[in-house]
Amino acid sequence: MLAGHTRFPGYPAADALPAHVLAPGGALWLDLQAGDMVRVAGAGSAQADGVELFVAALDRRGREAPGRLGIPAPDADLQEGARDGTPDWSGVDAREITRRLAAFGFRPGDLRYAAVRVSGEGLVMSAEGQVTGLFLYPESAGDLVRARSRGHLEIRVSRQRETPPEAPFLGDPREEILVRRGTAVAYEIGQGEMVQVIDLEGKQCSDFMAMNARALEGGREWHIDSTVTRSLVGGAWPVPGLFDKFYDQQMNPLLALEQDTVGRHDTFALACTARGYENRGFPGHANCSDNISAAFAPYGIRLRRAWPAINFFFNSWIPPSDNRIRSDEAWSRAGDFVAMRALADLVCVSTACPDDVDPINGWNPTDILVRIYPAGTASRKSVAYRPEPHARPVLTRESPFHSRTSRLTDQFEVARDLWVPRCFDATGAVGEYWACSEAATLQDMSGLRKLDITGPDAESLLQLALTRDIRRLSVNRGLYALLCDERGAVIDDGTLFRLALDVFRWCCGLDESAVHLRQVALENNLSVWITDLSHSLCNLAVQGPRSQEILSPLIHTQGRQPAFDRLRWFGFTVGRLHDRQGPPLMVTRTGFTGEKGYEVFCDAGSAPAVWDGIMEAGAPMGMKPMGTEALEMLRVEAGFMASGGEFGGPETPDECGLGFAVDTAKERFIGREPVLRNIATPRRKLVGLVSPSSETGARGDPVYIGRRRVGEITSAVRSPSSGRSIAMARVVVEALDCGGELEIGRLDGHMKRIPVTVTGLPFRDPEREKPRA
Q1: What Rg, from alpha-carbon coordinates, does the chain have?
Q2: Which of 162, 315, 426, 701 has the lowest CB atom count within 10 Å?
């Protein structure tokens, strides 16, 4: 614990970690059971001054039920401290609750909200029956951008009784089917309808099969074919997004996977069979294949001793070392589900697998729930994202810029909990690469994590946690820094901006940053608030040699803020788009491309206007939208490091090529001793590799000298500008004495080799003259 500093009352203590954090400008959808107690408490100035929170309530079918959360009916008097109110929708990112309410035929503005005051004592509510609470916390765009928000709200739920989490309703189901453990149930769904298969208690596998009903009427049993499906989606199973369909033997799509909170299933193994149990010494054991045949029998479907079903939630894999199918406990947790939309009229069957002789069902088979929703039920394609291993799943959402990017491409991929464009149809990744190198590009980078760190000990926290000397950082300036653990391993990297003496904004890549910083603050008794604005603030990257020319007439600054055209590398200003009436912005002279560029931060509600303004100004100068595929080419050429590639394991900064981001003269920071020890006596080093051919290695490929492995690839691309393959690799330092000639091993590492030459990083512009321009 840091000694010799003042402890300010009201800041988090070690036992005050919140269950739910509602950021300024955010909205929360919370499912409650009868008797649950909800306590809402403010943090930061939200605690000191009190804030207004807007609350509405729905029953499980989507009907308004204000009384179930202590909100009076429209004709009743409101409780003391509350008023009937309408939120300022311009200050709330309501896109998520808008989608969820649409499934029940509501819009957010249709509901009645109670405006309640959350003061220093907090607010307590009690659930009377099953109810969904909607909590809205408006915040002005200007306060978000300027880091003047009122602090987050902490919402804790004390459960009346511990019950497994229930999967959310996707609408009003027309039918619910409980599949008892060890059984199977057949059911029909029409084209356009949705089916939701739910693991009620966790770790329970459910085999699924679907027959084309119209083909069945003609005597043809066209059903999901796992081999066809794997071949057409190019993966082990479909995933929401581009490659989301299950196909039959005729290569006709039967279902589209729209939501998946597990992301781990099996399409290789059969549904369990009588023969399989007999071979293991369990004759007569109930099995899914016989259960499927019995459930399908009333439809005239012929019996099979073995069904090649889709094994939802079944955790299997094939190690390359022995080519054997392995399995273990399912990854699914209580309430996890998959949701599929029927693309034809279907006859389906779902099982609750009876296997209790190995771990696949957690040694304890349980029930499965199936919900069927009518055609037209609103849904969105999403997968589950968990910021921490034991966190509640968050379904991927659309970026605030999605209304603009989705007009230009259907090719999206997951970036943490957001869908972001991979490339755009009119240009393609290579065209976007050249646009960034020669003119300018506009890219949605809203997956970046944004943390406001405020309070009297904000500088002390960052000085302890980061590898750079924060005391040297001026207001309106930023710096690149690292978070390391006690062993010196890099946890995350990012850019720190100083908005005021005790107000900082940490823009980073991982949710682990917030977890780590909060832990350090609590362990050291520091008076500091850490407010996660990752969903409240979104950001665009404007990159390329013409980026300043495009933005200069758009950015209006006034007062003490630096003029846009005077910004230098890592400087920033706060202004508005076009004029003093435009959306508020924070504009930084930073980027991840190696080109001259800027990043523009705004509130979610202003995102479409900001995108439109920049694109309209940039199009005549050759600006193009850019996706993640082109960014990867530019990033590797520029020698910028990324989590999951260059760092994220036990490597210290020097082994990640990030030794430059360590202020070695700094007296104290977490991990200092092992970091400095590895800098003084390096064991491995990150280097560049250049191949004379265009054949590209891949992340994880081994690097060899002769027959001995000396390192591995961390990132690799084909460089459009040089036409050659380039890679970053971590190799033992002794390998650098071989004259600079190494080989990348493909296939088994020995059957095929790609000769490469060792070079320094970055591959181009070694003095960083472009971003400094």
Answers
A1: 28
A2: 162
Question: Which residue, chain included where needed, has tokens 């981001």?
Answer: 661
Q: What is the pLDDT of residues 638-681, one digit of tens each?
A: 999 999 999 999 999 999 999 999 999 999 999 999 999 999 99
DSSP 736: G
From the list 421, 771, 448, the residue with the least C-alpha distance to 631 is 421
For residue 143, what is the enclosing H or E element? helix 141-145
The amino acid that residue 567 corresponds to is L
**CA angle centred on 139, ends 95 and 552, rounded to 5°:** 85
**What integer pLDDT is reported at residue 49 of this predicted model?**
60
User: Across the strands, what pairs with 41?
Assistant: 154
* CB atoms inside a 10 Å sphere around CB 765: 15
Query: Distance (Å, rounded) from C-alpha 594 to C-alpha 602?
Result: 23
Give the per-residue pLDDT at 64.
85
Q: Nearest 10 degrees: CA dihedral of 601, 604, 606, 607?
A: 70
Dist. CA 231–CA 251, nearest whole Å: 10
Cα–Cα distance, 646 to 649 (Å, whole number): 9
Phi, psi angle pair for 676, to nearest 5°: -70, -35
Tell me: the pLDDT tens digits for 87-125? 888 888 888 888 778 877 788 888 888 888 887 778 888
Q: Measured between alpha carbons, how far is 374 from 191 in angstroms, rounded to an integer? A: 9
Residue 339 tokens read as 């949701």
Whether cis (ω within 30° of 0) applies to the bond prior to 762 is yes
Give helix 512-523 / helix 458-465 axis angle, nearest 10°: 110
Residue with tokens 């939309």: 341
* 8 Å CB contact between 88 and 10: no
Amino acid identity, residue 221? Answer: E
Tokens of 515: 């977890």
> Parallel, antiparallel, or unpaired: how do β-strands 440-444 and 623-625 relate?
parallel
- pTM for this one? 0.90
The alpha carbon of residue 658 and the mean position of all alpha carbons in its chain are separated, in whole angstroms, by 25
Provide mean pLDDT across the span 73-99: 68
CA dihedral of residues 580, 581, 586, 592 (deg, nearest 10): -110
Element holding 556 (H helix, E strand):
strand 555-556
Query: Is the Cβ–Cβ distance between 51 and 143 less than 8 Å?
Result: no
Give the tokens for residue 384: 């589950």
Amino acid identity of residue 202, one-letter, is: G
Which amino acid makes up residue 572?
Answer: F
Count how many residues are written for the chain: 773
> Domains of the chain by range and CATH?
20-158 (no CATH), 175-376 (no CATH), 389-447+536-638 (3.30.1360.120), 449-533+662-669 (3.30.70.1400), 680-773 (2.40.30.110)
Each residue's pLDDT tens digit, 525-540: 999 999 999 989 999 9
Work out the average pLDDT over 350-377: 95
Give alpha helix (H) positions in 7-93. 45-49
Of the candidates 111, 119, 140, 130, the residue with the CA atom closest to the CA atom of residue 33: 130
Query: Exposed (0-12), middle (13-18) or buried (19+): which is 196, by Cβ within 10 Å?
Result: buried
Distance of alpha carbon 760 from alpha carbon 728, whole angstroms: 10
Q: CB of 333 within 8 A of CB of 390?
A: no
Residue 162, classed as helix, strand or coil, is coil
Long-range contacts of the stretch 405-412 (C-beta < 8 A, 24+):
405/444, 405/625, 408/625, 409/627, 410/242, 411/242, 411/627, 412/241, 412/242
Mean pLDDT of the chain: 91
The pLDDT tens digits for 5-60 are: 454 444 454 444 346 788 899 898 888 888 888 888 886 555 556 788 899 888 87
Strand pairing report for 253-260 and 382-385: parallel
Helical (H) or strand (E) element with 185: strand 184-189
- DSSP secondary-structure letter at 522? H
Q: Which residue has the higher pLDDT, 102 or 613?
A: 613
